Amino acid sequence: MKLKIVYFGASLAGKSTTVKKLYELLKVKGIAKGEFVSMETDEKRTLFVEMFLSSITIDGQTFEMKILTTPGQFRLHPLRKAIVQGVDGLVFVVDSHREREKINFLVMRETAAVLKEQGFDLYKLPVVVQYNKRDLPEALPVDELEPVCNPWGTRFVESVATEGIGVLESFSSIVKKVLSNYAEKGSV
Ligand SMILES: Nc1nc2c(ncn2[C@@H]2O[C@H](COP(=O)(O)OP(=O)(O)OP(=O)(O)O)[C@@H](O)[C@H]2O)c(=O)[nH]1
Ligand SMILES: [Mg+2]
Q1: 130 Cβ closer than 6 Å to some ligand 1 atom
Q2: Looking at the CA of 73, which ligand is closest?
Q3: Whose CA is nearest to atom 32 of ligand 1?
Q4: Residue 135 CB less than 6 A away from ligand 1
């Protein structure tokens, strides 16, 4: 079975850092396959897509997972559409910096609109919220971020992606959610 997991969120929230760290951590465990593919602009912003493949075997059944990030910049909107197509689960990477509160929310709303065009409801898909940059002195308390960034009331993870903190937690959390979602639908 093939699964698609997409990391979305505002530009500079830390999606690329999260997924790169995740790749390194999974590679050490022997769970990541092949290379990490990335395309960036000269300013290190994600231009197109970053992705890698991973597979896990549970009870004799192997799940192939494709892990992707979306480019956060608004001018790259059309690419975001292609990336979320057929998604099975999402990680919402939130920039905890107090000045980024509004942009986090706008990107969530825009992602919901993109998915709606494709017949998906963001608020019903498996999602994990990852509050990133918890190391910043300007980080808002999670209690303040929750009402804005977690309309799912879903499990959240606090992270410092640059140090690899919280990265495996958000990933294992979304994998569990995606698998239990399939189990509920009776397709696993
Ligand atoms: N202090 C701090 N900085 C972080 C953290 N995570 C990422 N950063 C920094 O934030 C900047 C942006 O990180 P990226 O991972 O490139 O952000 P992105 O979400 O992929 O950005 P786009 O590709 O433009 O959408 C980089 O300079 C990172 O080093 C964190 O947890 N704490
Ligand atoms: Mg990026």
Answers
A1: no
A2: 1
A3: 133
A4: yes
Q: Which fold has domain 2-185?
A: Rossmann fold (3.40.50)
In short, whether 14's Cβ falls inside 6 Å of ligand 1 is yes
Residue for token digits 């995606």? 178
Predicted confidence (pLDDT) per residue in 75-98, tens digit: 666 667 777 888 999 999 999 999
Which ligand has an atom closest to residue 76 CA? 1
Q: How many CB atoms lie within 10 A of CB 74?
A: 13
Parallel, antiparallel or unpaired: strands 46-58 and 61-69: antiparallel
CA 18/CA 30 separation, integer angstroms: 18
CA of 153 to the centre of ligand 1 (A): 25
User: Does the structure show a pLDDT above 70 at 42?
Assistant: no
- Which residues have CB under 8 Å from 126's CB, separation 6+? 88, 89, 90, 174, 177, 178, 181
Q: Which residue has the higher pLDDT, 80 or 164?
A: 164
What are the extents of the domains in the chain? 2-185
Q: What is the pTM (predicted TM-score) of this model? A: 0.92
